[in-house]
Amino acid sequence: MLEVRARDLDGREVIAVIAVNPMDSDSVLATFGALGVLVVILAESGLLVVGFFLPGDTLLFPAGVLCAATADQAPRLVLWQVLLCAAVGAVVGGQIGYLLGRHGGRALLARTSKRRVRDAAARAEKLLARYGYGKALVIGRFIPLVRTVLHPAAGALGVPVRTFTIWQIVGGLLWSQALVLAGYTLGASVPGIDAYLLPLVALVVVLSLLPLLPVLTESRRSKRDR
Fold first, then answer.
1. Angle at 47 between CA 46 and CA 50, to 5 degrees
2. Which residues contact 177 (CB under 8 A, 6 or more apart)?
3. Where's the VTT domain (predicted)?
4. 204: closest CA among 32, 23, 63, 30?
5. Among residues 135, 134, 141, which one has the least CA distance to residue 160?
6. Distance (Å, rounded) from C-alpha 219 to C-alpha 75?
7. C-alpha to C-alpha distance for 34 and 77, rounded to whole angstroms
8. Residue 7 in 3-state DSSP?
9. Counting beta carbons within 10 angstroms of the beta carbon of residue 111, is it exposed (0 to 12), middle (13 to 18) or buried (19 or more)?
10. 142 with 211: CB under 8 angstroms?
């Protein structure tokens, strides 16, 4: 809930309460615009349990669509502002996640009772082991859930600061800018794209899970061999 205070023409204070659902991209974008992109992406990129409940891909793609002008509607968001906020949120969020991981992240992951968090942490570790630090930090940005826990996991596992910083910036910029620009391109070239946002976002999420297939296949194979 967001409380807004103002005064009417007679000088009396008026309090307006605006309902905001941080897990709903439409609600976030309608209320906060580009600033909402910055805050949500920052949290989703490294604040562990909190980030699991926030939209990432499903916020950036629609934000890009809303930056595009159509024949009968002006842009509802400013493209450069969304790109900048997405980049800052992704990079700063990733670095915060890493610092949290270095200072007690492993203990926090061990104590959590949420199965989704534990599973995502295990996948993040396997991703780092399978692809190496650089590739894992770039690929992991495009995988929901894993993205949130990857940076704290990297900190907890002792990934060197310089290596982590370079590759998480590369991954963060590629992920955030690509999704916003993909949404913008579709919004500018396909009339009435708003009506197809849900299936398009679902497709983006499915595609983003593809890098996990080798890790999951390897995990199942190792379980069968035991």
1. 135
2. 83, 86, 87
3. 54-184
4. 63
5. 134
6. 46
7. 7
8. strand
9. exposed
10. yes
Helices 34-44, 79-102: axis angle to 10 degrees equals: 20
* Contact by Cβ (8 Å): 78, 29: no
Predicted confidence (pLDDT) per residue in 20-63, tens digit: 555 566 667 777 788 989 988 998 887 766 655 676 778 898 89
Residue 96 tokens read as 């915060």
The pLDDT tens digits for 184-193 are 998 888 776 6
d(CA 99, CA 105): 8
Tokens of 189: 């070239």
Q: 70: which strand partners?
A: 73
Mean pLDDT of 116-126: 73
Put simply, whether the predicted model's pTM sits higher than 0.85 gets the answer: no
Beta-strand relationship, 2-7 and 13-18? antiparallel
d(Cα 172, Cα 153) in Å, to the nearest integer? 16
Residue 125's nearest CA partner among 157, 166, 171 is 157
The CA-CA-CA angle for residues 84, 173, 190, to 5°, reads: 75
Nearest alpha carbon to residue 128 among 32, 211, 12? 211
| pLDDT score, position 8 | 42
The residue count of the chain comes to 226
Do 66 and 187 touch, CB atoms closer than 8 A? yes
Q: Is the dihedral of CA 176, 179, 181, 183 positive or negative?
A: negative
Strand partners for 16? 4
